[in-house]
Specification:
The protein is of the alpha/beta class and about 550 residues long. The protein contains 24 helices and 14 strands. A 7-stranded parallel β-sheet has the order 8-9-10-11-12-13-14. The protein has a 5-stranded mixed β-sheet with strand order 2-4-7-6-5, sandwiched between helices. It has a two-stranded antiparallel sheet with strand order 1-3. A hairpin with a 5-residue loop joins strand 6 and strand 7. It is globular, with a radius of gyration of 26 Å.
Length: about 550
Amino acid sequence: MTNKEISNQFSMLSKLMEVHGENSFRSKSYSIAAYKISQLPEELQSLSEEKISSLNGIGDAIAKKIQEIFSDGMIKNLQELISKTPEGIFEMLKIKGLGPKKIGLIWKEMGIENIGELLYACEENRLLLYEGFGKKTQQNVMEAIQFFMSQKGNYLYAQLDQLSKECLMLFKRIFSTELISATGDFRRQEETMNALEFVLTAPLQAIISEIKNLNNFAFHEQADDWVSFKFKDGIIIKIYSTDSENFITTLFDKTGTEEFVNAFGGLYPKSIMKGAENEDQLFTKAGIQFIPPFLRDNTEIIETAAKYKIPQVIQPKDIKGIIHCHSNWSDGINTLEDLANACRKSGKEYLVISDHSKSAFYANGLSIERIKAQHELVDELNKKLNPFKIFKSIESDILNDGSLDYGEEVLQSFDLVIASVHSNLKMTEEKATTRLLKAIENPFTTILGHMTGRLLLSRKGYPLDYKKIIDACAANNVVIEINANPRRLDMSWQWIPYALSKNVLLSINPDSHSIPEFENTDYGVLAAQKGMLTSAKNLSSFSLPDLESFLKNKKLVQAPL
């Protein structure tokens, strides 16, 4: 039982107590416990009961609940509340803008037990009859439900990454074939998808008979040349059956979008594909540059390939340092020294420490006094770790009016500043664009962090005039972050070509809150490849001397605000 699973139980217990109108003090204490447990560096399962009781923020009462989890698998109170809570309430708890207390009112006062009923009630303006639900709240609830329902059944690329590898190994072993590959959305490195797809050389009936008897695979659907199964937690796994002679053509057909495949077929008949032993040969036979799977989304890329203008895109090995990282000075887990040593061990040349600024009180944002103390520590560590370097940075909140979170004197003390929006995300396009433009025009802004504030599959992010924002970054020499957290991937890859056309630098940053999250960078690279980003245009691919030179030049143009 991991800390995350234990934390989730306390979090759910707190929410359900609020839904059922139970003791608010106890509910809050369980919510705090959930947060404390999620931040622990050690797994509770490895500690004694006495040690757990002594942990900061835990205490005897919470420790007893944790022991219940270890012995019975679930907190007894939670089990009781789950048993008397309609299934649809749990979906409501996933809707942004609906707190547990409001859900309790919706359920008990309105008799609504699922999001479908709630959406219908919103359309009939029934929520306006109850205290605490104004027009704006109702509209926000409707939009959140519609977005949630449209994304239901979709998964992040990162969520399916490991499963894809495991399936490939499993299918290779079962069918004794090397002619097998992931295909579809996953092979194109899409941000989200609703299924994992594979092509393999085996008869369809053999695939069905072998896989349907495996644990965790349940038969779902079947057609002439494919079969799908539901994996244990609902993920659809679709398998295309083919033979060795047609493996390459089938793989090609199932990788690209329908638009791409049809356009390619209109220009280069399928007869040219015959005899191709791999996809490289296929494109050679067509007389055009190889189009990597991740670029097979639209028809424009075919013309680019015909002119041999697809660049050598960025690779994970091109990342030279970690930019945008949180330590235990704010809401990260690890110490500065541990983070730096982990970077060195992985071959990186530098670390840009970017803890939260003072307005992010919920994340232990840094006061001016704590900034000075952190900078003193950075100076000490840089002497100790030379030639590795830690850069002094901050993720400064962009306030409502577009100003940054500190005055000029404090901002000058950093090597670079990442400016990001974290609060008041519900803005019109005009408001959001104006807010970001002011932050970009601040001479101390080095990088614009997670541009839209989106969270894939759960929050759209605020609307923006992308061209205005990118043009402003070009005019003010501001780098645009590609936030590599798999739930963000923000700025979206679709806008990378426009940014490159304006000579804007991008920066693939993990936004890590722990050492393992350094690996988020790889997901940022996969997304950036779809926008044809090169290492030369990515700030986190700069060598240490090149980054120092870039920052020195940036400092030279800074002027008093």
